[in-house]
Design goal:
Shape: globular
Largest sheet: 3 strands, antiparallel
Radius of gyration: 16 Å
Strand order of the largest sheet: 1-2-3
């Protein structure tokens, strides 16, 4: 999960399970430290390690456009799988968290002045996305899974069009 936009990224978090995540506080590093961290992040994003995201196209666009960091091997997008399971519901992470997890509302932490709470918020986004992925994987079967996979496969061409336009 990234926190930021095309004009800057303050931090990025990675979850290794639904209960474990860590933060890379990019904006709090010195210029040399920021370069080192961004290179390490770029190496990981290019790796074959499977990646699970919520609204993958947003993170992929920001990282590719602003930082020249493509994300390889996106295996799941919980926004897309949430739409396949409950197309009439909002696709946001807060809605999915309330349905597929037992986590209480935590989105208010985004507006906390302390870096520690903001970083906690970012890590929760990653860990909860992982938890939702596990639940969606159990629920998504048959034609719905095939349609989800089709939409997931469209992310790369859509990103290309966002970055380069289309004829």
């Amino acid at each position: 999960d990234i926190e930021g936009h095309i004009h800057g990224m303050s931090c990025v978090s990675f979850a290794t399970s639904p209960r474990t995540a860590f933060i890379v506080p990019v904006s709090s590093f010195s210029p040399d430290g920021r370069r080192i961290a961004l290179r390490a992040i770029a190496r990981f994003l290019r790796s074959s390690t499977p990646k699970i995201l919520q609204n993958a196209l947003y993170d992929a666009m920001v990282l590719a456009y602003s930082y020249r960091m493509p994300i390889h091997n996106i295996v799941w997008d919980t926004m897309l799988s949430g739409w396949e399971i409950d197309p009439e519901l909002p696709k946001g992470l807060a809605t999915q968290t309330s349905i597929y997890t037992s986590w209480p509302y935590y989105k208010h932490l985004r507006f906390e002045p302390s870096s520690r709470e903001f970083w906690r918020y970012c890590c929760l986004d990653s860990a909860i996305t992982y938890e939702i992925y596990e639940r969606h994987k159990e629920l998504l079967r048959g034609p719905a899974y095939e349609h989800f996979q089709f939409n997931l496969d469209l992310l790369s061409p859509l990103l290309y069009m966002q970055l380069r336009g289309m004829r």
